[in-house]
Amino acid sequence: MRIYPVNYQTNRYQPAFQSVARTVRDEQGRLKYRNTTNFFRNDLDWQKFTDFITEKYKMTDKVNVVCYACSDGSEPLSLLMLMKEKFPDGGKKFLPITAKDIDNTVIEFAKGDFINMDFHDETAINKFTGGKFRKYFVPPVPGFDIDPVLVKKQPELCKNINYFVADITKDILTVPRDNTIVFCKNFWPYLADNQQRWKLVSNIKSRLRKNCLVVIGDYDRVSDTPLMFVKAGFRRVANLANVYAAPLVRHLIR
Fold first, then answer.
1. For 230-240, b where at least 16 C-beta lie within 10 A, e where not — what string?
2. What is the DSSP code (8-state) at residue 42?
3. What burial letters (b/e) apply to 168-184, b meaning 16+ CB within 10 Å?
């Protein structure tokens, strides 16, 4: 496996910015996948989403949050900070978050005490936490610029996310069936073809039963993934782009 810099000229989908950008190719130089991420990525309305899950799971004692394709941890960390700010108990019933990625390199980095950021990330974190960047991270010296720098996480962030190496196409069959939120964002176009994508959608449907959500990303529209979820019976959550409620499973009464 070879690691190359990202060629932004050939990438049709380009986020407004990215604090982590890494391309992985096979020995023949063919693209396998990209690790491109940043804090509070704008393909999810984070405030509305946390409001929604607060109401949806208000009578639920434990909610399982599983974040696939987590890259360096920016996405689960974004959710964790929001829950820390929103809930008086820090979102205890949603924790710990389980974060998984197929790439061992980024998982080993995510497990560590540092993360890459630029000034866009700092701005987003302050926006969504009410200016509490220092509560969660140690500011770099002399400060942020357009180039990413290593920033130290505060200890409370490290203990609330469990990271694992996993391939969602196999690992999805292990997630809890009920009261589960599955983040599976911005990797669907990297799957081999529509047959493999449909198989994964079908496995997600068969695994999730009661009171479950699936969150995908804007990039996944390239592969018509949203339509696949709808065809499989998932329901788009009103006023929340990229969020789907799993089909209700009715058990036969014997």
1. eebebeebeeb
2. T
3. bbeebeebbeebbbbbb
Distance between CA 47 and CA 62 in Å, rounded?
21
The token pair that represents 192 in the structure block: 């081999």
Q: Could you give the 3-state DSSP secondary structure of residue 6?
A: coil
Give the DSSP H/E element, type plus range, for residue 105.
helix 104-110
pTM for the full predicted model: 0.85
From first to last of its 254 residues, what are the pLDDT tens digits of the chain? 333 333 322 333 333 334 544 444 445 454 443 445 689 999 999 999 999 999 999 999 999 999 999 999 999 999 999 999 999 999 999 999 999 999 999 999 999 999 999 999 999 999 999 999 999 999 998 888 888 999 999 998 889 999 999 999 999 999 999 999 999 999 999 999 999 999 999 999 999 999 999 999 999 999 999 999 999 999 999 999 999 999 976 543 33
- How far CA 176 is from CA of 38, 91, 204, 222, in Å, comes to 27, 19, 11, 29
Q: Residue for token digits 């068969």?
A: 206
> Residue 50 is encoded by which pair of tokens?
């946390």
Question: How many CA within 13 A on the CB side of residue 48?
Answer: 11
Distances, alpha carbon 50 to alpha carbons 44, 180, 214, 253, in Å: 10, 14, 14, 35
Q: Which amino acid is at 51?
A: D
Which residues are CB-neighbours of 187 under 8 A, at least 6 positions away? 33, 68, 69, 168, 220
